[in-house]
Amino acid sequence: MKRVAVVYVVDDDPNMRQSLELMLSSAGFVVEPFASGEEFLAAYRDTGDLARCLVLDYRLSDMNGLEVQQRLQEERAIIPVILLTAFADVSLAVRALHAGAIEFLEKPVNRHTLLDRVEQALIRDFQNRMRRHEADEFSDRFRTLSRREREIVGLILESRNTKEIAAHLEIGIKTVAKHRARMLHKLGLKSEVDIALHAMQLKDLLLGQRLPHFSRERLAREGLVQQQSARPNDVADEDGRVGVARHEQHVHARAN
């Protein structure tokens, strides 16, 4: 049967390590034990969708639990850590939590408490991995957008409506609507409300792409382009071209 979760146990005391392994495996958890921090770090790979958590003793022969947490952070490995110690104090607990531990338990560990914390840690890790997976998929869909579609995303995030987007991009309203519909389809979104829900990630993606998604008016305010004065007779057709309105009645009146 395919594993869906694993609990790593790191303790240099063989009796304690075996006891923890038995306690967890008897409750149905898949357990991988390690005798040292270095042994665990050498074997650990933060890949795949497998939910996982780390039950880590603070006092190890080669390094302490905080040092293991620091190494994980340096390698950008995201895993819930439950830190165990027989010599608990407030300052150590605070440092452990600041280093990223989600729980700090004193030995001897209550079986019910440990099983409950491990279950919560695995649920938390599974949810985090699902969110990262969804974020990666959304980023992949974003990369399929054309430059114009990305510009429109940026303007929508500036709370511009369709008419304002058309004016600032100097294209027709129908053209904006077509680009917006294609953009929503590619992103797998249904409306601009969904864009608002993904606003933070979209802003990060736009910033990462260094796209010119801001309007000419905003760029002019920032002094990056010269402000162009609008001509009253300039109108945009639905294909996005700008032309001069023909006042035929006025022309005929002057001719007569």
Report on this model:
It is a single chain. The protein is α/β, with parallel strands linked by helices and 256 residues long. The protein has two domains: 5-133, Rossmann fold (3-Layer(aba) Sandwich); 143-246, Arc Repressor Mutant, subunit A. 53% of the residues lie in helices and 13% in strands. It contains twelve helices and seven strands. Strands 2-1-3-4-5 form a five-stranded parallel β-sheet, with helices on both faces. Strand 1, helix 1 (14-26) and strand 2 form a beta-alpha-beta unit. It is elongated.
Radius of gyration: 29 Å
What number of domains? 2
pLDDT averaged residue by residue: 80
Distance between the termini: 92 Å
The strand order across the widest sheet is 2-1-3-4-5
Q: What key attributes describe this structure?
A:
256 residues, alpha/beta, Rossmann fold, Arc Repressor Mutant, subunit A, 2 domains, five-stranded parallel β-sheet, two-stranded antiparallel ribbon, 12 helices, 7 strands, elongated
What is the secondary structure topology, with strand pairs?
Blueprint: E1 5-10, H1 14-26, E2 31-34, H2 37-43, E3 51-57, H3 65-74, E4 81-85, H4 90-98, E5 101-106, H5 111-142, H6 147-157, H7 162-169, H8 173-187, H9 192-197, H10 199-209, H11 216-221, E6 234-236, E7 242-244, H12 248-255
Parallel strand pairs: 1-2, 1-3, 3-4, 4-5
Antiparallel strand pairs: 6-7
